[in-house]
Design goal:
The complex is a heterodimer of chains A (about 300) and B (about 290). With about 300 residues, chain A is mostly helical. Chain A has 13 helices and two strands; from the N terminus they run αββαααααααααααα. The chains are: A mainly alpha (about 300), B mainly alpha (about 290).
Chain lengths: ~300, ~290
């Protein structure tokens, strides 16, 4: 499929090259208008003081890096950063462990689980659910007078457990929802990775008398490492973007006492109150964090493609 | 291996199998229990729900629906229509242009091809939220606040869909087909629309479903852009319900509204789950 091979082909494809530009033009135009210009203007805004007091607009005045300075000294930025990180870890660790286990089981040739199609269907389902509706549902289910408390009370608990008034249970509920929404997706990605491994490697290990856990640890895990990195970093970037679930569950306040307020919820607050200077500064920091992570993914990606490039 | 060892191996395998099933059933329960409560409670009336939890559905679904659709404070019908319109347009626009971009990079050689591909891969993982501030301001100055255009047109540049299409083309679209069309005198756009798109149908279908669902579920951007009540989408309505004085609400209506937002997606998913699950695996990086 590579046309660089023969010079004749190459010279012919040059005359069609302009079509390539035409075909990719809409993408780049849309990206320019809807992402790149907004991105630059967000950066630009982060250097200005500009906010509303009642109906009066303060600024815009150029303040240099002052927004960044006050972000780290006055606001609770570091608190929100650690909230985001803690909640992400709480959901991601069980997600990865369970997904690895399920992916190993579903692809195990000796185990041959029945109804695996049914289970795959079920575990992937929560991924397609509207996060806003899902968290609204959790809010009603875990409310003081909700079904979970009514079951707990009927089992002999004296007063309802106030899930959204405690730090641990609130963070736990958000993490549980993140877990439920993503473990199916991760399982299927890992399964695809495992099924991409040359079966003769497993056969060889089996003939050598390796047990299933041994095969998993010493053959499967090292070979799916690139996908594990991919899963890890896309999940981390997804975690940085965490918004809908905690926003709806805590009504945008990050209760109790802003311990479940995430970075994007904080950004959203600035955008709604039209505090564009501070909002810009938060955006730039978010951008920097994800840019570093994206670069890592990008390099692990391209490294992979060069190795598997001739497969197509 | 003698027969005794074989028997022992068989036995340990069945023990493992039982353990797997127990674990899977637990996970299934965990994944489904909230949806079960949702469906049950959507069919029960407010006083019934207040009385406590029940495992059996009630008879008030029609009653709840009627209350919900006539509720003056919740423009459910118009938000349902808005959500459907935006999601359908996003899916159409997004898949068509992503296939077009992928085709441009797959089928032609030009100077900035490598750069273009690398660039798209770079932007793939930059969250949309980081440019939200500039985006909302730009759309306001362009007079596009409260319009669906800023929710639909940005999907022309959907890097993840592009990447999926590109991978699919690599395995199903030989350049020879395009060359044959050229010899027959087909114009390049004609080739794309009449020959490439039909070949891409399975990939287009899977990605259209994903884009539809993602747009249907989107809350962050619509909430920032749409504030007039006849333009609201379903997620905004749900958020509005959450921030309203909750105790005064008819819980039957609350559950029914959440069900309206979720259940159609579940039904479509159950019908198409084979494609969807395959689609996720297809789009992933292959080893």
């Amino acid at each position: 499929m590579d046309e660089k091979g023969s010079p004749r082909k190459k010279s012919r494809s040059i005359s069609y090259g302009k079509w390539g530009y035409l075909f990719i033009a809409p993408f780049f135009l849309a990206y320019l208008v809807f992402s790149l210009i907004p991105l630059i203007s967000t950066f630009y805004n982060s250097f200005f003081e500009r906010y509303m007091v009642g109906l009066d607009l303060i600024g815009p005045t150029f303040v240099g890096l002052e927004n960044y300075y006050s972000l780290f000294t006055q606001g609770d930025f570091s608190k929100y950063l650690s909230n985001t990180f803690i909640i992400w870890i709480l959901g991601f660790v069980p997600q990865l462990l369970v997904s690895l286990l399920l992916a190993a089981w579903f692809t195990d040739l000796r185990l041959r689980l029945r109804a695996s199609g049914f289970f795959k269907t079920v575990i992937y389902m929560p991924n397609l659910i509207m996060a806003a509706a899902f968290s609204m549902l959790f809010y009603t289910i875990f409310a003081d007078a909700g079904p979970v408390n009514s079951v707990l009370m009927s089992m002999g608990m004296e007063s309802p457990y106030r899930f959204l008034a405690n730090i641990g249970s609130t963070r736990g509920l958000i993490a549980l929802m993140n877990f439920l929404m993503w473990y199916g997706n991760t399982t299927i990605l890992l399964m695809a990775a495992i099924m991409g491994i040359d079966p003769s490697l497993f056969e060889a290990a089996q003939i050598d008398g390796a047990s299933s856990p041994q095969i998993f640890r010493q053959v499967t895990l090292p070979l799916i490492k690139p996908i594990l990195i991919y899963v890890m970093i896309t999940s981390l970037i997804g975690g940085i973007q965490m918004f809908d679930v905690p926003q709806i569950l805590t009504n945008g306040n990050g209760n109790p006492n802003r311990t479940s307020m995430t970075l994007v919820m904080y950004l959203n607050k600035h955008l709604f109150s039209e505090n564009f200077g501070m909002g810009g500064a938060v955006s730039v920091i978010l951008f920097l964090i994800s840019a570093v992570l994206s670069l890592i993914v990008f390099y692990s990606f391209t490294g992979k493609m060069q190795r598997g490039g001739n497969k197509a | 291996m003698n027969s005794r060892a074989k028997n022992a191996a068989q036995r340990s395998l069945s023990v493992r199998r039982v353990f797997c099933y127990i674990f899977l059933i637990l996970l299934t329960f965990l994944s489904l229990f909230s949806f079960y409560i949702l469906v049950i409670n959507a069919t029960r009336s407010h006083p019934d729900i207040q009385k406590g939890f029940s495992f059996l559905p009630g008879k008030s679904l029609i009653f709840n629906l009627k209350n919900l659709f006539t509720n003056q404070n919740l423009p459910v019908l118009s938000s349902l229509r808005n959500s459907l319109f935006i999601s359908a347009c996003t899916a159409l626009v997004g898949t068509y242009f992503s296939a077009m971009t992928a085709f441009g990079i797959h089928a032609y050689n030009f100077r900035f091809k490598k750069f273009a591909f690398a660039f798209i891969m770079m932007v793939m993982l930059v969250p949309t939220q980081v440019s939200a501030l500039g985006f909302v301001r730009l759309m306001s100055t362009m007079g596009l606040r409260n319009s669906f255009i800023p929710l639909i047109l940005p999907s022309v540049a959907a890097p993840i869909v592009f990447f999926f299409m590109k991978q699919y083309m690599e395995s199903t679209l030989p350049i020879e087909i395009i060359e044959a069309a050229r010899i027959d005198g087909s114009n390049e756009f004609h080739t794309f629309n009449r020959i490439v798109l039909p070949i891409m149908k399975p990939a287009m279908a899977v990605q259209a479903i994903f884009m539809f669902v993602a747009s249907w579920n989107n809350y962050f951007m619509p909430a920032l852009l749409l504030d007039s009540s006849n333009k609201k989408t379903l997620p905004i309505l749900i958020a509005q319900l959450r921030s309203a004085d909750f105790m005064k609400f008819d819980m039957g209506q609350v559950y029914t509204l959440v069900a309206i937002a979720i259940v159609p997606v579940i039904i479509v998913y159950l019908l198409l789950s084979k494609f969807i699950v395959r689609g996720v695996a297809l789009g992933s990086v292959k080893g």
